[in-house]
């Protein structure tokens, strides 16, 4: 399978690899983001883990723990592969917002995000064929404009909140609510490409 991680300057390195890359994720966004840097996983193997925060768990350790657990859950079935997993959380202060699975939750999240800054934290983790596991996280600050009831109704109507951490997707209509962003746009969408690209360049075995 051909994998072409880009170098730090953004130029494509036409490299081949014999090594299997497993993406431990059901998120189509994460596949799209990898495609953006020329990477096609050999295997998509979603991890099924309990994503409930531990009591008093802070957002950053939570995102890192879930990314680590997702990669570790899938790795035993793919011994010689490099397994990549991620978890994206939206946090207001110490509070972890839920992944919106229904309208009421999405509405609550949007009201909480309206007119204020929040953090989006993506934990990423890889398990190397040696069994060694690396985990880190990337934090991005996002500021939303004040949302009117009409804004919220329109957003709920769009359905774009479905399955998204914090009830919004920056890559869609919600882009018009983002007054300011400091950090990594790709991390907000679900996978920090600077960090993941660096890991793949460093650890994917090349012929
Ligand atoms: C904040 C934000 C989140 N999201 C998405 C990314 C993730 O898919 C989702 C957060 O949930 P995650 O639990 O990180 O990922 P997932 O359940 O979709 O997939 P898997 O656990 O199998 O990897 O929210 C966006 O697409 N855009 C955004 O702006």
TrEMBL record:
One Pfam family linked to the record: Maf
Molecular-function GO term, any one: dTTP diphosphatase activity
Main EC class the enzyme belongs to: hydrolase
Compartments reported by the entry: Cytoplasm
Classification via SUPFAM superfamilies: ITPase-like (SSF52972)
Position of the signal peptide: none
Site (Important for substrate specificity): 29, 88, 171
Superkingdom of origin: Bacteria
Catalytic activity, reaction form: UTP + H2O = UMP + diphosphate + H(+); dTTP + H2O = dTMP + diphosphate + H(+)
Cofactor: a divalent metal cation
One BP term from GO: nucleotide metabolic process
Gene3D superfamilies in the record: 3.90.950.10
Active site: 87 (proton acceptor)
HAMAP family with a match to the protein in the record: Maf
Record's function text: Nucleoside triphosphate pyrophosphatase that hydrolyzes dTTP and UTP. May have a dual role in cell division arrest and in preventing the incorporation of modified nucleotides into cellular nucleic acids.
Entry's family note: Belongs to the Maf family. YhdE subfamily.
Protein name as it appears in the record: dTTP/UTP pyrophosphatase
């Amino acid at each position: 399978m051909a994998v072409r991680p880009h170098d730090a300057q953004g130029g494509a390195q036409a490299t081949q690899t014999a090594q299997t890359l497993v993406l431990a994720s059901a998120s189509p966004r994460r596949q799209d983001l990898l495609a953006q840097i020329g990477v096609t996983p050999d295997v998509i193997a979603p991890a099924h883990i309990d994503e409930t925060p531990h009591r008093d768990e802070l957002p950053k350790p939570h995102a890192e723990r879930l990314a680590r657990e997702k990669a570790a859950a899938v790795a035993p079935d793919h011994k010689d592969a490099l397994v990549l997993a991620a978890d994206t959380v939206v946090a207001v202060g110490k509070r972890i917002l839920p992944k919106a699975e229904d309208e009421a939750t999405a509405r609550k999240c949007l009201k909480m995000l309206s007119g204020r800054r929040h953090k989006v934290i993506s934990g990423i983790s890889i398990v190397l064929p040696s069994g060694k596991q690396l985990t880190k996280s990337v934090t991005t600050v996002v500021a939303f404009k004040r949302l009117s009831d009409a804004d919220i109704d329109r957003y709920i109507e769009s359905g774009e909140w479905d399955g998204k951490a914090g009830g919004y997707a920056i890559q869609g209509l919600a882009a018009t609510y983002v007054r300011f962003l400091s950090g990594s746009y790709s991390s907000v969408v679900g996978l920090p490409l600077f960090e993941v690209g660096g890991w793949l360049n460093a650890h994917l075995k090349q012929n």
